[in-house]
Every structure is written in C-alpha cells, then in structure tokens.
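Exercise 7.
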Amino acid sequence: MEAQALESYLEQMRDLISQKQDNQLEDHSTIFHLIDEYTSAVEGNSSDQAFFEGERNFYQGNFENSLKFYLEAKEFPNFQFYCYRASSLISEARGQHEKALNYAQKAYKIDPQDRSMRNLYANLPREELVEASHNSEAIAESNSENEVFSNHIYDQYQPVKSSLNSVNIPKNHFNYTSKDYLMMSSKSGGELEKRIQNFQNNQTKKMQAYLTNSFQKSFIAENLLCILNGWSFDPSEKPLLFTEESRKSSGGHYLKWDGKGIVINPGPGFLDNFHSQGFCIKDIDFVIVTRNSRDAYADLRAISELNQQLNKNLAERQIIHYYLQQRVYQQLAPFLKPSFKQARNTIHKLEMFLDSPDVERVELHEGIVLHYFLNTMPEKTQNSREANDDQALNSSNLGIRLELSNESKSKKMKIGYVSGLAWSPLLVHHLGYCDLLVAAFGNTSSNDYSRIGYNEDSLGYHGSASLFEELAPRLMLLTEFSGREGDIRLEVIKKMREECTQDSSTQKTVLLPADIGLTFDLNTMQVKCLLSEDLVDPSGINVVAGSDSFGRLRYLSSSFCA
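Solution. The predicted structure, written as tokens, is:
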C-alpha cells in the first residue's frame, strides 16, 4: 500500500474516531464503509487485505481475531504497532493491566497519534508515558512479548468485546509527526526491503541454475563409489603446513547404488569436492556419520540447509535420512530439524545397547542394508555391561558394512568402511568377507611401520597391513591420511604390497591409495581413468603423483603412461 494512501486512511479513521468521541457518529457503519473502500482498493494484495480484515475485527471489538489478521500482514508498514495495540486491549480485557500497559507503551512509541485506547492511558501520567516511550530500557522485556507474534495464544480464550471509548493523546510529543514517521519509514524501509528482496531473488536464481545444471550433467554410473577425501590445497599457498591440523586430509565418501546416494562422514570441504565431481544435492538420500569428530561431520549442517533451500524450489521434496553416531546425534540432531512434514522421522541414532549383538543391522532401503559395530574386545564389553556403562558403548567410533543387492538379487556386493578405529582381530569378524574395503590409514610411527606394535588411535601401517592380509577383499583403498609424517601415500602402498604376501590359491587383493576423484564402478569392479574416463581393471590402473607433496593423485590407464 502506498504511504500516501495509508496516511489518508489513518487521517480519515482518526476523524471518525473523534466524531465518535464527540457523539457525532451514531453508529459504526461509516467506519466499516471506510474499511470496505480501502479493502476493495488493495484486492489481490494478501498482506494489505489481512490488515484491513484486522481493522474490521478491531473496530467490531473482536480483538483476538484482529490480532490474528494483523499477524498475517507482516509486509504492511508498521504492522507491529497494530499487533501491540490489539494485544494491549486483549490483556486489559483479561485483567492483565501491567501487561496491557507494556503493550500500550510499545504501540504509543510507534504512533503517538492513535486514539483508540483511552482506558489504558486514562490513569497513566503524561510524563510517565513520554518517558517510557523514549527510554527503551523502561519497556519490560517480559516473556509475554512473544505472544504478539504467536498464533497459539488464542486457543484458551473466547473473543473479547470492548467499547470504542477513545481519548485525545497529546500530539507532537516526538520530534517527528506520524506522517513524518511514515514517510521516513517508507523511504528507509523501502531501501532495506529492496536490498533483502534483491538478495532473495538472486538466491532463487542461483538455486534454479543449480537445479538446471544438475539435470544437464553428464552421465554418471548408476552404481559407483567415489572417494571425496584428500588434500584440496596448493602446498605452495599453504604456509600452515607446519601445523599438523593443516595437513589433515578432509572431505568424505560417496556411494551410489540402485539410484540411491549415500554420503559417509562428510567432513570439511566435502560439498566442494562433491560438486566438483558433477554431483548435486539431489544425488543424496542417506548420510552416515560413524565418529564424533568434526573431520567426519563438518559439512553435515550445510547438506541439510542446502537441501531445505532446494525443497523450496521443488514440487517433489528431496528427502535425506541421517544416520548418526550417538554423540553426533546428541549434538547435531536439533540443527537438522526438517522444515517439511515429508521429512519427519529422518534423523536416526546409531546406538549400541547393553544387550546388543556384536553388529547392529538397519535397512536403509530395499537392497541397501547397513551393519554397524563397535571395535571393542569381549572382555572390555563385558566390563562395560557389568558397570552398566551404556555411555561407554556409545561414545566410541563405529565401523560399518554395507550389503548391497539389486531388485532381482542378481548383483550383490559388500563394502566395508573403518575410520578412527585401531586394529583388533574383531574387525575381521565384524567386516566379514568384503568385495571392497575403504580403510582410514590415520598416522604411523617407527614401531607401527616396523610392525612391532599397533597404534591405539588409528589403523596406521600395521593395522592396515593386517586387514590387507586377513580380510583379503577384492579391492582395498587406503584413505584419510593424517599428514603427520608428510605425504607418504605411495610409499605406504609400495611397502605394503611388497611385504604383505597372500596365499597364491586365493584371489589377489588390489591395494590402492585413495584420493579425491577416484571413482570405482561397482557394476564392472573397475576404476575410471581420469583422462579418458575409460574403465580399467584395478590391477592395471597407474597411480601418478605430482611433483609437490600433498598434491592430487591421478588414476590413469596404461595408454597415458608410456
């Protein structure tokens, strides 16, 4: 509504209220005729129409209903004034005089020319009202203030009727008149509103472009594993490489099976790596977090927020289910609260119980079964149970095994993933036979790579080598190197290949270092060449490192490695 039209309406309404005060107005028909006239003039504008419905109910004495309509008119200039005004009369009718006065002071501060609350001002000294309206600290910040903007306070009350007594409120108590205030508010508020609207429009355009790109993306294999964890910086531009924290690899992992996308441990930089490989948020259906570390969940909230923005632009909601280690669930579940009812019951806790089996089982979707477990020795588990210490059972990191099958059950696959776990013979038992194993290396030391003892906080060299020998998957990928000892990925792989012998009667395990962009086709059990995008048997793929440490590894077919 134009500021000039609003000022005209307010002036006419003030005149009618004055006539009512002087007993020159026999009934309210003239007031309602004025409201009808302006209602018809704003037809099609839902916010303005809600305002005038609020006015109609207000002057009928239905203050409860008027507040409901005022709350729907948030785009109307100074809609807070009308909410405060109605709330003050509601409170007064309920006998809550102090609360009524609080709302009246707030309303008066916005528009001192309003003349519809005589019973609230009659016993209030003029100086007190002026002082209260100038001094914001004098306005009580009570919990009841939030009632003005709540749609639930009316449930227990019946509509309140009141007479239209009014009083002359002294004008010009402020340096600015109501007209000045409206013009200034319209001007500055318009600029602010325009700025906000431009930003929102720009965000909408970006999201639409994002969706368009996702529909036009190049072909991506239906069943795949893509490694998105690694180092994503230029070492020459990273002076913080002197600190261990700055050398940590980051990101996560992405698996797609039978049209469903699964994210595992989306740490720092995951979304950047995810999008750089041609994926978009629509490609995510499940997120699994196995350990309570920022390295494993830093991008979790960003995934949730991006998906909520996406759903505002889609008729069909994209629903993501989150399966979280217990401590992560406790910390982050409140921030993942869905905005759409279709996403109810999508936050799940991966917890172990005192009477749990060694491995818990959850069916994510038809053909996708998640098994998760603690890497705890039996005597430790027994001690925990005797002490009734269920927190100890749920504070540890989890290992997982995914059992995948297609609709006809003609294609089956088992994929294991361990991160943040130290070596234990139980790992082999829990993981069972795996076609593919993704293992987080972590860090190493002389005792570890000499195979004298095992690490206590990660697999390291000795633990990874033991899994390599005893589990013997078809393909084993070493990932999530800590960087504490430098870039040792290729040296670790070479040493392990040379030292870890396997029975010639059994299949040979292919061992590869995993870096961002390594893509494994689960249909053919082959690796994609980064240059030609041809699929190559893992045993024939060439891993090429750049001249700089911590650089991106490239996976190439023999035709590119003369």
